[in-house]
Amino acid sequence: MSVQGSIRLAHGAGARLTADLIREVFAPAFGNEHTARAEDAAEVRLAGTRLAFSTDAHVVRPLFFAGGDIGKLAVCGTVNDLAMKGARPRYLSLGFVIAEGFAIAELRRIAESIGAAAREADVEVAAGDTKVVERGAADGLFITAAGIGEIPEGRDLSPARLAAGDALVVSAPVAEHGLAVLDAREKLGLGPAFRSDCAPLGSLVEAAFASGAEIHALRDPTRGGLATVCLEFAGLSGRRLVLRERDLPVRPAVASAAALLGLDPLYVACEGVCLAAVAGRDAGKLVAALRAHPLGVQAGIVGRVEEGPAGAEIETAAGGRRRLAWLEGEPLPRIC
């Protein structure tokens, strides 16, 4: 077994060590058909209704950053996981772990941010719980969120549906969230252009389906970034995903800052971006629909799906291919 000893920070980073932890510790203990699918939300049926169900924990540091805060992140992260299953998010439950001494003014500010984000996402915060721990614990505040959404009949999204010839479409520039949080944490002074892309994607997903495009899978590239999502898709589908470097949406300022910091934008988290695998014949239709939405104006085709062996690569601007590899951990811990 590869999981031995004690937990490391990297075990919570969404990369290779997280996958090992799930496979070797959690799956044997309570694995079932839902956890075996390794998706961000499970599909369950109650009284004949198709529901998406997801849980997310938020430990971001610092609590406030350009473009968002832990409250907005808790809402968006959870509703986006539901939307990636094709669901229409409906209800959230929130759990607050608050350290003694935390300022009521900051808690009120975060609660108001949660309310605003929930209204934007068209969901209700229907239940919750509050626990207080000793002074200095929990870095002030942690939030756990669970969400439920309805999956309309006819929608069937899964990485297992990927087929050779599918196009890979990204809805917006990548790596914005991770660099915004890093800037706030380390006080780098990168400037006002560095803001988190944190946003609820439900309405964008509805626009995607309204286009009539044959969408096979959706995923929001959070921890581990776009590269990790491609590797997950490859492993779950047995296909090879190929990105085109020249078509990847990375703002020049973001690319420059990432290079200066020794980071690869493909592995930096987003919180308001969607990757879609769509039948190749419908790629143009999907891109047009996304570009008509405020959150998708820079959407574009960034790659394709090929027959196996399973894996992910990037076609470089020079014309070669470079293999995308799993990271052992996240270069930017605690960004969500």
Question: Could you walk me through the main structural features you see in this protein, from its secondary elements to its overall organization?
Answer:
It contains nine helices and 14 strands. Helix content is 31%, strand content 25%. It starts with 15 loop residues before the first helix and ends in a 13-residue tail after the last strand. With 336 residues, the chain is α+β, with helices and mostly antiparallel strands. The radius of gyration is 19 Å and the shape is globular. The model has no long low-confidence stretch (mean pLDDT 93). The strands form three sheets. The protein has a seven-stranded mixed sheet. It has a five-stranded mixed sheet with strand order 1-2-7-5-6, covered by helices on one side.
Alpha-beta content class: alpha+beta
Second CATH tier, the architecture of the largest domain = Alpha-Beta Complex
Q: Please give the order of strands in the largest beta sheet.
A: 9-11-8-12-10-13-14
User: Helix and strand succession?
Assistant: HHEEEEHEHEEEHHEHEHEHEEE
Helix content: 25-40%
General shape: globular
Under CATH at level 1, the class of the largest domain stands as: Alpha Beta
Radius of gyration: 19 Å
How big a fraction of the residues is strand? 25-35%
Quote the distance from N terminus to C terminus: 28 Å
CATH H-level superfamily title of the largest domain: PurM-like C-terminal domain
